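Study this one:
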Amino acid sequence: MYCTSLPLICKENKSIKSTSDHEVLDQLARIHDFVLGPEEHECAHKIRCTILNLQSRNINFVMQALQSNHNCHQMQLTTNTVDSLLQNFGDDWQSAMGFFQWAGSRPGYKHTTYAYNKIVDLLGKMKQIDHMWDLVEKMKIEGLITLETVAKIMRRLVGAGRWKDAVSFFDDLGRIGLAKDTETMNFLLDTLCKEKKVEVAREVFMELKAHIPADAYTFNIFVHGWCIARRIEEAIWTIQEMRGYGFRPSVITYSTILMAHCKQSNFCKVYEVLDEMVADDCPPNVVTYTIIINSLARTQDVEQVLDVVNRMKSSGCKPDTRFYNTLINILGKAGRLDDAFHIFEIEMGMNGVNPDISTYNIMISIFCQHDQEQNALHVLKEMEYSPCKPVLQTYNPLLKLCFRMGKIDDQLKSLLSDITTKHHLSFDLDTYTLLIHGLCGTGHVEWAYFLFNEMLGQEIVPRIRTCRLLMDLAIQKNMDVAVERIKSMISRSKV
Protein backbone atom coordinates (compact mmCIF):
# COMPACT_ATOMS: atom_id res chain seq x y z
CA MET A 1 0.00 0.00 0.00
CA TYR A 2 1.53 3.30 -1.04
CA CYS A 3 1.41 6.58 0.84
CA THR A 4 -1.28 9.05 -0.02
CA SER A 5 -0.41 12.69 -0.53
CA LEU A 6 -2.32 15.92 -0.03
CA PRO A 7 -5.81 15.39 -1.54
CA LEU A 8 -6.41 11.95 -0.01
CA ILE A 9 -4.91 12.84 3.37
CA CYS A 10 -7.16 15.91 3.52
CA LYS A 11 -10.20 13.69 3.05
CA GLU A 12 -9.05 11.31 5.77
CA ASN A 13 -8.24 14.06 8.29
CA LYS A 14 -11.03 16.60 8.55
CA SER A 15 -8.86 19.08 10.45
CA ILE A 16 -6.48 19.57 7.55
CA LYS A 17 -7.54 22.23 5.30
CA SER A 18 24.48 26.70 -4.43
CA THR A 19 24.44 30.31 -4.06
CA SER A 20 24.97 32.45 -7.17
CA ASP A 21 26.40 35.95 -7.45
CA HIS A 22 22.96 37.21 -8.44
CA GLU A 23 21.49 35.72 -5.26
CA VAL A 24 24.29 37.35 -3.29
CA LEU A 25 23.46 40.77 -4.74
CA ASP A 26 19.80 40.03 -4.01
CA GLN A 27 16.91 39.05 -6.19
CA LEU A 28 15.52 42.02 -8.04
CA ALA A 29 12.23 40.55 -9.12
CA ARG A 30 9.47 39.05 -6.98
CA ILE A 31 6.31 37.32 -8.15
CA HIS A 32 3.24 39.38 -7.43
CA ASP A 33 1.07 37.62 -4.87
CA PHE A 34 -2.69 37.37 -5.33
CA VAL A 35 -5.11 36.07 -2.72
CA LEU A 36 -8.29 34.79 -4.33
CA GLY A 37 -11.61 34.50 -2.56
CA PRO A 38 -13.66 31.26 -2.89
CA GLU A 39 -15.71 32.53 -5.86
CA GLU A 40 -12.62 33.93 -7.58
CA HIS A 41 -10.78 30.65 -7.06
CA GLU A 42 -13.69 28.74 -8.60
CA CYS A 43 -13.74 31.09 -11.61
CA ALA A 44 -9.99 30.69 -12.10
CA HIS A 45 -10.36 26.90 -11.95
CA LYS A 46 -13.08 26.88 -14.62
CA ILE A 47 -11.06 29.13 -16.93
CA ARG A 48 -7.91 27.01 -16.54
CA CYS A 49 -9.82 23.80 -17.23
CA THR A 50 -11.42 25.28 -20.34
CA ILE A 51 -8.02 26.28 -21.76
CA LEU A 52 -6.21 23.07 -20.73
CA ASN A 53 -8.85 20.90 -22.43
CA LEU A 54 -8.25 22.51 -25.83
CA GLN A 55 -6.52 20.29 -28.38
CA SER A 56 -5.12 23.35 -30.15
CA ARG A 57 -4.31 26.61 -28.44
CA ASN A 58 -4.06 29.71 -30.57
CA ILE A 59 -5.49 33.13 -29.78
CA ASN A 60 -8.78 32.64 -31.63
CA PHE A 61 -9.41 29.10 -30.37
CA VAL A 62 -8.87 30.16 -26.78
CA MET A 63 -11.18 33.16 -27.17
CA GLN A 64 -13.89 31.07 -28.83
CA ALA A 65 -13.67 28.34 -26.20
CA LEU A 66 -14.08 30.83 -23.37
CA GLN A 67 -16.91 32.67 -25.17
CA SER A 68 -18.85 29.47 -25.84
CA ASN A 69 -18.36 27.95 -22.38
CA HIS A 70 -21.55 28.46 -20.34
CA ASN A 71 -19.74 28.55 -16.98
CA CYS A 72 -17.26 31.15 -18.20
CA HIS A 73 -20.02 33.22 -19.77
CA GLN A 74 -21.99 33.36 -16.50
CA MET A 75 -19.15 34.15 -14.10
CA GLN A 76 -18.50 37.52 -12.48
CA LEU A 77 -14.95 38.27 -13.58
CA THR A 78 -12.72 40.31 -11.25
CA THR A 79 -9.39 41.99 -11.95
CA ASN A 80 -7.91 39.91 -9.13
CA THR A 81 -8.86 36.69 -10.92
CA VAL A 82 -7.55 37.87 -14.29
CA ASP A 83 -4.29 39.26 -12.94
CA SER A 84 -3.59 36.09 -10.95
CA LEU A 85 -4.17 33.88 -13.99
CA LEU A 86 -1.95 35.99 -16.23
CA GLN A 87 1.12 35.19 -14.18
CA ASN A 88 0.68 31.44 -14.73
CA PHE A 89 0.85 31.05 -18.52
CA GLY A 90 4.63 30.60 -18.71
CA ASP A 91 5.73 31.00 -22.34
CA ASP A 92 2.29 30.12 -23.77
CA TRP A 93 1.70 33.59 -25.18
CA GLN A 94 -1.19 32.54 -27.45
CA SER A 95 -3.29 31.16 -24.59
CA ALA A 96 -2.43 34.21 -22.49
CA MET A 97 -3.36 36.59 -25.29
CA GLY A 98 -6.59 34.74 -26.05
CA PHE A 99 -7.59 34.85 -22.39
CA PHE A 100 -6.58 38.52 -22.12
CA GLN A 101 -8.69 39.49 -25.15
CA TRP A 102 -11.67 37.45 -23.95
CA ALA A 103 -11.55 39.07 -20.50
CA GLY A 104 -11.24 42.52 -22.05
CA SER A 105 -14.32 41.89 -24.21
CA ARG A 106 -16.54 41.13 -21.20
CA PRO A 107 -19.18 43.83 -20.56
CA GLY A 108 -18.11 46.20 -17.81
CA TYR A 109 -14.66 44.67 -17.43
CA LYS A 110 -11.53 46.82 -17.72
CA HIS A 111 -7.98 45.50 -17.56
CA THR A 112 -5.54 46.82 -14.96
CA THR A 113 -2.18 48.34 -15.82
CA TYR A 114 -0.63 45.22 -14.27
CA ALA A 115 -2.45 43.00 -16.79
CA TYR A 116 -1.35 45.12 -19.76
CA ASN A 117 2.25 45.17 -18.54
CA LYS A 118 2.21 41.41 -18.01
CA ILE A 119 1.03 40.73 -21.56
CA VAL A 120 3.38 43.31 -23.07
CA ASP A 121 6.28 41.64 -21.29
CA LEU A 122 5.25 38.13 -22.38
CA LEU A 123 4.76 39.16 -26.02
CA GLY A 124 8.14 40.87 -26.02
CA LYS A 125 9.80 37.88 -24.38
CA MET A 126 8.41 35.57 -27.07
CA LYS A 127 9.50 38.08 -29.76
CA GLN A 128 5.91 38.76 -30.85
CA ILE A 129 6.83 42.38 -31.41
CA ASP A 130 3.97 43.29 -33.77
CA HIS A 131 1.40 42.02 -31.25
CA MET A 132 3.26 43.90 -28.53
CA TRP A 133 3.11 47.18 -30.48
CA ASP A 134 -0.63 46.73 -31.09
CA LEU A 135 -1.16 46.42 -27.36
CA VAL A 136 1.08 49.40 -26.62
CA GLU A 137 -1.04 51.52 -28.98
CA LYS A 138 -4.15 50.61 -26.96
CA MET A 139 -2.32 51.50 -23.77
CA LYS A 140 -1.38 54.88 -25.25
CA ILE A 141 -5.02 55.63 -26.04
CA GLU A 142 -6.13 54.71 -22.51
CA GLY A 143 -3.20 56.49 -20.86
CA LEU A 144 -1.95 53.31 -19.19
CA ILE A 145 1.73 53.44 -20.09
CA THR A 146 3.88 53.75 -16.97
CA LEU A 147 7.62 53.77 -16.33
CA GLU A 148 7.34 50.03 -15.69
CA THR A 149 5.85 49.62 -19.17
CA VAL A 150 8.69 51.64 -20.67
CA ALA A 151 11.31 49.50 -18.94
CA LYS A 152 9.67 46.26 -20.13
CA ILE A 153 9.32 47.47 -23.73
CA MET A 154 12.93 48.61 -23.92
CA ARG A 155 14.20 45.39 -22.40
CA ARG A 156 12.25 43.17 -24.79
CA LEU A 157 13.09 45.21 -27.89
CA VAL A 158 16.80 45.11 -27.17
CA GLY A 159 16.56 41.42 -26.26
CA ALA A 160 14.99 40.77 -29.67
CA GLY A 161 17.91 42.53 -31.36
CA ARG A 162 15.83 45.63 -32.16
CA TRP A 163 17.84 48.16 -30.18
CA LYS A 164 17.19 50.87 -32.78
CA ASP A 165 13.46 50.51 -32.08
CA ALA A 166 14.20 50.88 -28.36
CA VAL A 167 16.07 54.12 -29.02
CA SER A 168 13.21 55.36 -31.24
CA PHE A 169 10.71 54.47 -28.52
CA PHE A 170 12.73 56.55 -26.06
CA ASP A 171 12.71 59.47 -28.51
CA ASP A 172 8.90 59.25 -28.71
CA LEU A 173 8.26 59.24 -24.95
CA GLY A 174 7.08 62.85 -25.04
CA ARG A 175 4.18 61.88 -27.30
CA ILE A 176 2.77 59.55 -24.67
CA GLY A 177 3.13 62.02 -21.84
CA LEU A 178 6.34 60.69 -20.30
CA ALA A 179 9.49 62.72 -19.79
CA LYS A 180 12.82 62.08 -21.46
CA ASP A 181 14.77 62.58 -18.27
CA THR A 182 17.59 60.99 -16.30
CA GLU A 183 15.41 58.13 -15.09
CA THR A 184 14.13 57.07 -18.51
CA MET A 185 17.56 57.61 -20.07
CA ASN A 186 19.00 55.27 -17.46
CA PHE A 187 16.33 52.67 -18.33
CA LEU A 188 17.53 52.72 -21.92
CA LEU A 189 21.25 52.69 -21.10
CA ASP A 190 20.82 49.90 -18.56
CA THR A 191 18.86 47.76 -21.01
CA LEU A 192 21.46 48.22 -23.74
CA CYS A 193 24.33 47.42 -21.38
CA LYS A 194 22.69 44.29 -19.98
CA GLU A 195 22.20 43.01 -23.53
CA LYS A 196 25.92 43.56 -24.25
CA LYS A 197 25.34 46.70 -26.32
CA VAL A 198 27.53 48.90 -24.14
CA GLU A 199 29.14 50.65 -27.13
CA VAL A 200 25.70 51.54 -28.49
CA ALA A 201 24.78 52.79 -25.01
CA ARG A 202 27.86 55.02 -25.03
CA GLU A 203 26.87 56.50 -28.39
CA VAL A 204 23.35 57.18 -27.10
CA PHE A 205 24.76 58.78 -23.96
CA MET A 206 27.10 61.03 -25.95
CA GLU A 207 24.06 62.29 -27.89
CA LEU A 208 21.90 62.82 -24.82
CA LYS A 209 24.32 64.14 -22.19
CA ALA A 210 24.05 67.73 -23.44
CA HIS A 211 20.28 67.67 -22.85
CA ILE A 212 19.78 65.20 -20.00
CA PRO A 213 21.97 65.30 -16.87
CA ALA A 214 23.69 62.10 -15.80
CA ASP A 215 23.68 60.90 -12.20
CA ALA A 216 25.84 58.44 -10.27
CA TYR A 217 23.61 55.56 -11.36
CA THR A 218 24.30 56.42 -15.02
CA PHE A 219 27.98 55.72 -14.52
CA ASN A 220 27.35 52.61 -12.45
CA ILE A 221 25.35 51.33 -15.43
CA PHE A 222 28.38 51.78 -17.67
CA VAL A 223 30.74 50.21 -15.14
CA HIS A 224 28.45 47.19 -15.09
CA GLY A 225 28.10 47.19 -18.88
CA TRP A 226 31.85 47.19 -19.49
CA CYS A 227 32.27 44.42 -16.92
CA ILE A 228 29.60 42.31 -18.65
CA ALA A 229 31.60 42.77 -21.86
CA ARG A 230 34.76 41.70 -19.96
CA ARG A 231 36.38 45.05 -20.66
CA ILE A 232 37.41 45.90 -17.14
CA GLU A 233 39.86 48.62 -18.19
CA GLU A 234 36.99 50.62 -19.71
CA ALA A 235 35.02 50.09 -16.49
CA ILE A 236 37.93 51.50 -14.48
CA TRP A 237 38.19 54.44 -16.90
CA THR A 238 34.45 55.07 -16.34
CA ILE A 239 35.16 55.54 -12.64
CA GLN A 240 37.55 58.36 -13.54
CA GLU A 241 34.89 59.85 -15.84
CA MET A 242 32.42 59.57 -12.98
CA ARG A 243 34.71 61.59 -10.74
CA GLY A 244 34.98 64.21 -13.48
CA TYR A 245 31.22 64.69 -13.27
CA GLY A 246 31.47 65.21 -9.52
CA PHE A 247 30.28 61.77 -8.41
CA ARG A 248 32.24 59.50 -6.08
CA PRO A 249 32.28 55.76 -6.75
CA SER A 250 30.21 53.82 -4.23
CA VAL A 251 30.52 50.35 -2.74
CA ILE A 252 28.28 49.18 -5.60
CA THR A 253 30.68 50.65 -8.17
CA TYR A 254 33.73 48.98 -6.69
CA SER A 255 31.90 45.71 -6.02
CA THR A 256 30.94 45.52 -9.69
CA ILE A 257 34.61 45.78 -10.71
CA LEU A 258 35.52 43.30 -8.02
CA MET A 259 32.91 40.80 -9.23
CA ALA A 260 34.29 41.04 -12.77
CA HIS A 261 37.75 40.09 -11.47
CA CYS A 262 36.17 37.26 -9.48
CA LYS A 263 34.54 35.85 -12.61
CA GLN A 264 37.99 35.75 -14.22
CA SER A 265 39.43 34.17 -11.04
CA ASN A 266 41.90 37.05 -10.88
CA PHE A 267 42.02 37.23 -7.10
CA CYS A 268 45.22 39.31 -7.01
CA LYS A 269 43.18 42.10 -8.64
CA VAL A 270 40.32 41.42 -6.23
CA TYR A 271 42.56 42.14 -3.26
CA GLU A 272 43.91 45.26 -5.00
CA VAL A 273 40.34 46.55 -5.35
CA LEU A 274 39.71 45.85 -1.66
CA ASP A 275 42.79 47.91 -0.74
CA GLU A 276 41.70 50.69 -3.10
CA MET A 277 38.25 50.81 -1.51
CA VAL A 278 39.76 51.27 1.94
CA ALA A 279 42.15 53.94 0.64
CA ASP A 280 39.23 55.77 -1.02
CA ASP A 281 37.30 55.82 2.27
CA CYS A 282 34.74 53.47 0.72
CA PRO A 283 35.16 50.35 2.87
CA PRO A 284 33.84 47.01 1.55
CA ASN A 285 30.55 45.89 3.03
CA VAL A 286 29.26 42.43 3.80
CA VAL A 287 27.88 42.03 0.27
CA THR A 288 31.35 42.68 -1.15
CA TYR A 289 32.88 40.00 1.04
CA THR A 290 30.06 37.58 0.24
CA ILE A 291 30.78 37.96 -3.47
CA ILE A 292 34.46 37.16 -2.86
CA ILE A 293 33.99 34.03 -0.76
CA ASN A 294 31.29 32.78 -3.13
CA SER A 295 33.73 33.14 -6.03
CA LEU A 296 36.64 31.62 -4.10
CA ALA A 297 34.46 28.58 -3.43
CA ARG A 298 34.79 27.66 -7.10
CA THR A 299 38.53 27.25 -6.62
CA GLN A 300 37.84 24.81 -3.74
CA ASP A 301 40.47 26.68 -1.71
CA VAL A 302 38.69 26.75 1.65
CA GLU A 303 41.71 28.18 3.47
CA GLN A 304 41.68 31.24 1.20
CA VAL A 305 37.96 31.62 1.90
CA LEU A 306 38.67 31.60 5.63
CA ASP A 307 41.44 34.20 5.15
CA VAL A 308 38.86 36.53 3.58
CA VAL A 309 36.46 35.81 6.45
CA ASN A 310 39.16 36.78 8.95
CA ARG A 311 39.99 39.91 6.94
CA MET A 312 36.32 40.93 7.03
CA LYS A 313 36.06 40.39 10.77
CA SER A 314 39.28 42.32 11.48
CA SER A 315 37.97 45.26 9.41
CA GLY A 316 34.95 45.55 11.70
CA CYS A 317 32.47 44.51 9.00
CA LYS A 318 29.69 42.45 10.56
CA PRO A 319 28.49 39.25 8.87
CA ASP A 320 24.81 38.91 8.03
CA THR A 321 22.57 35.93 7.39
CA ARG A 322 23.33 35.76 3.67
CA PHE A 323 27.08 35.81 4.35
CA TYR A 324 26.75 32.97 6.84
CA ASN A 325 24.54 31.00 4.44
CA THR A 326 27.24 31.24 1.79
CA LEU A 327 30.00 30.28 4.22
CA ILE A 328 28.06 27.31 5.62
CA ASN A 329 27.38 26.09 2.09
CA ILE A 330 31.08 26.36 1.16
CA LEU A 331 32.21 24.47 4.26
CA GLY A 332 29.57 21.80 3.78
CA LYS A 333 30.51 21.15 0.16
CA ALA A 334 34.16 20.91 1.24
CA GLY A 335 33.20 18.18 3.70
CA ARG A 336 33.85 20.32 6.77
CA LEU A 337 30.51 19.53 8.35
CA ASP A 338 31.64 20.13 11.92
CA ASP A 339 32.79 23.66 11.03
CA ALA A 340 29.56 24.35 9.14
CA PHE A 341 27.44 23.09 12.02
CA HIS A 342 29.47 25.13 14.56
CA ILE A 343 28.71 28.32 12.61
CA PHE A 344 25.04 27.37 12.34
CA GLU A 345 24.61 26.30 15.96
CA ILE A 346 27.04 28.60 17.84
CA GLU A 347 28.67 31.45 15.93
CA MET A 348 25.57 32.96 14.33
CA GLY A 349 23.88 33.27 17.70
CA MET A 350 26.99 34.74 19.33
CA ASN A 351 27.04 37.48 16.67
CA GLY A 352 23.32 38.21 16.95
CA VAL A 353 22.56 36.89 13.45
CA ASN A 354 19.37 34.89 13.07
CA PRO A 355 19.13 31.99 10.61
CA ASP A 356 16.53 32.26 7.88
CA ILE A 357 14.77 29.56 5.88
CA SER A 358 17.75 29.29 3.52
CA THR A 359 20.12 28.68 6.46
CA TYR A 360 18.10 25.69 7.64
CA ASN A 361 17.63 24.42 4.08
CA ILE A 362 21.37 24.61 3.38
CA MET A 363 22.25 22.80 6.61
CA ILE A 364 19.72 20.03 5.93
CA SER A 365 20.94 19.70 2.33
CA ILE A 366 24.57 19.44 3.47
CA PHE A 367 23.80 16.61 5.88
CA CYS A 368 21.72 14.81 3.25
CA GLN A 369 24.54 15.08 0.69
CA HIS A 370 26.77 13.24 3.16
CA ASP A 371 24.08 10.66 4.03
CA GLN A 372 23.76 11.95 7.60
CA GLU A 373 20.03 11.40 7.89
CA GLN A 374 19.72 11.79 11.65
CA ASN A 375 21.62 15.10 11.70
CA ALA A 376 19.42 16.39 8.87
CA LEU A 377 16.28 15.39 10.77
CA HIS A 378 17.67 17.06 13.90
CA VAL A 379 18.02 20.37 12.01
CA LEU A 380 14.52 19.90 10.60
CA LYS A 381 13.19 19.50 14.14
CA GLU A 382 14.98 22.70 15.22
CA MET A 383 13.46 24.49 12.25
CA GLU A 384 9.96 23.39 13.22
CA TYR A 385 10.39 25.03 16.63
CA SER A 386 11.89 28.22 15.15
CA PRO A 387 10.11 31.17 13.50
CA CYS A 388 11.30 29.74 10.14
CA LYS A 389 8.87 26.98 9.23
CA PRO A 390 9.77 24.31 6.65
CA VAL A 391 8.84 24.85 3.01
CA LEU A 392 8.77 22.35 0.15
CA GLN A 393 12.42 23.05 -0.72
CA THR A 394 13.34 22.03 2.83
CA TYR A 395 12.12 18.50 2.21
CA ASN A 396 13.52 17.86 -1.28
CA PRO A 397 17.03 16.78 -0.11
CA LEU A 398 15.41 14.52 2.50
CA LEU A 399 13.15 12.95 -0.14
CA LYS A 400 16.15 12.34 -2.41
CA LEU A 401 18.00 10.74 0.50
CA CYS A 402 15.08 8.38 1.10
CA PHE A 403 15.28 7.14 -2.48
CA ARG A 404 19.05 6.87 -2.33
CA MET A 405 18.97 4.88 0.92
CA GLY A 406 15.95 2.80 -0.10
CA LYS A 407 13.78 4.00 2.80
CA ILE A 408 10.55 4.09 0.82
CA ASP A 409 8.08 2.34 3.10
CA ASP A 410 8.90 4.08 6.35
CA GLN A 411 10.87 7.35 6.16
CA LEU A 412 9.42 8.55 2.83
CA LYS A 413 5.84 8.02 3.98
CA SER A 414 6.58 9.81 7.25
CA LEU A 415 8.05 12.81 5.42
CA LEU A 416 5.13 13.02 3.00
CA SER A 417 2.72 12.94 5.92
CA ASP A 418 4.63 15.76 7.64
CA ILE A 419 4.62 17.86 4.47
CA THR A 420 0.89 17.63 3.88
CA THR A 421 -0.63 16.97 7.31
CA LYS A 422 1.72 18.69 9.71
CA HIS A 423 2.76 21.72 7.66
CA HIS A 424 -0.19 21.95 5.23
CA LEU A 425 2.06 22.26 2.17
CA SER A 426 0.90 21.40 -1.35
CA PHE A 427 3.27 19.71 -3.77
CA ASP A 428 4.53 21.81 -6.68
CA LEU A 429 5.85 20.73 -10.08
CA ASP A 430 9.40 20.17 -8.82
CA THR A 431 8.34 18.03 -5.85
CA TYR A 432 5.95 15.92 -7.93
CA THR A 433 8.72 15.44 -10.51
CA LEU A 434 11.21 14.41 -7.82
CA LEU A 435 8.77 11.92 -6.30
CA ILE A 436 7.63 10.38 -9.58
CA HIS A 437 11.18 9.95 -10.86
CA GLY A 438 12.33 8.57 -7.52
CA LEU A 439 9.47 6.09 -7.33
CA CYS A 440 10.03 5.00 -10.93
CA GLY A 441 13.71 4.46 -10.16
CA THR A 442 12.86 2.21 -7.21
CA GLY A 443 10.19 0.16 -9.01
CA HIS A 444 7.11 1.79 -7.44
CA VAL A 445 5.42 2.54 -10.76
CA GLU A 446 1.83 2.30 -9.48
CA TRP A 447 2.54 4.83 -6.75
CA ALA A 448 4.26 7.08 -9.30
CA TYR A 449 1.19 6.91 -11.55
CA PHE A 450 -1.05 7.73 -8.58
CA LEU A 451 0.96 10.92 -8.03
CA PHE A 452 0.88 11.64 -11.78
CA ASN A 453 -2.93 11.58 -11.68
CA GLU A 454 -2.94 13.65 -8.53
CA MET A 455 -0.83 16.41 -10.07
CA LEU A 456 -3.16 16.54 -13.07
CA GLY A 457 -6.02 16.96 -10.62
CA GLN A 458 -4.11 19.89 -9.12
CA GLU A 459 -3.83 21.41 -12.65
CA ILE A 460 -0.05 20.96 -12.62
CA VAL A 461 1.24 19.93 -16.06
CA PRO A 462 3.99 17.28 -15.88
CA ARG A 463 7.23 17.73 -17.79
CA ILE A 464 7.56 15.74 -21.01
CA ARG A 465 10.51 13.71 -19.69
CA THR A 466 8.40 12.69 -16.67
CA CYS A 467 5.58 11.55 -18.94
CA ARG A 468 7.93 9.53 -21.14
CA LEU A 469 9.69 7.88 -18.20
CA LEU A 470 6.41 6.87 -16.59
CA MET A 471 4.90 5.71 -19.89
CA ASP A 472 7.87 3.44 -20.69
CA LEU A 473 7.60 1.76 -17.29
CA ALA A 474 3.79 1.55 -17.51
CA ILE A 475 4.15 -0.25 -20.86
CA GLN A 476 6.51 -2.77 -19.26
CA LYS A 477 3.96 -3.41 -16.49
CA ASN A 478 1.01 -3.65 -18.92
CA MET A 479 -0.73 -0.67 -17.29
CA ASP A 480 -2.83 0.00 -20.40
CA VAL A 481 -5.12 2.67 -18.94
CA ALA A 482 -2.13 4.57 -17.61
CA VAL A 483 -0.32 4.34 -20.95
CA GLU A 484 -3.27 5.83 -22.84
CA ARG A 485 -3.69 8.68 -20.36
CA ILE A 486 0.01 9.53 -20.44
CA LYS A 487 0.04 9.42 -24.26
CA SER A 488 -2.87 11.87 -24.28
CA MET A 489 -0.97 14.16 -21.91
CA ILE A 490 2.13 14.08 -24.13
CA SER A 491 0.03 14.85 -27.22
CA ARG A 492 -1.62 17.85 -25.54
CA SER A 493 1.72 19.14 -24.26
CA LYS A 494 3.07 19.28 -27.81
CA VAL A 495 0.27 21.60 -28.93
